[in-house]
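REVIEWER CHECKLIST
Item 1: Sequence provided? yes
Item 2: Single chain? yes
Item 3: Sequence as submitted:
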Amino acid sequence: MIKSNDSYGITYTEKDGLLYPGLTLPAQSDEDIGRFGRMREQYLKEHRKAFYSIFCIKFELNDHLREINQQAIEQIELISSQLAQAEGVSDQLKAREQLGRVQAVNSCRARAVEIVVRETVLA
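Item 4: Structure as written out by the authors:
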């Protein structure tokens, strides 16, 4: 037997004289939250417990973590290309000194990751 409480829109099922609410959880995406999403989640758990709880209660945590991960990736690409351009890392350098260019690009990327983690992921 199914009864409905119109004031709240909840449906109940009667079983053995007891009413059980027909509650369901919202659909959650199972996409990967990524490296920076996992870092953000750990940061929220340890340092921003209230925000973490709110995201969990509203079922918005995974969406937030995927968004942070995407923002971090985009910012790293932008910042590392700007740093490389400012330091004169170009294809001409690749032709002259291949290993030096690789080291310079890796250095720019590492600094960009540090900046983004500090300003986006752990903010």
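Item 5: Key structural point noted by reviewer: The first strand starts at residue 2 and ends at 5.
Item 6: Recommendation: ____
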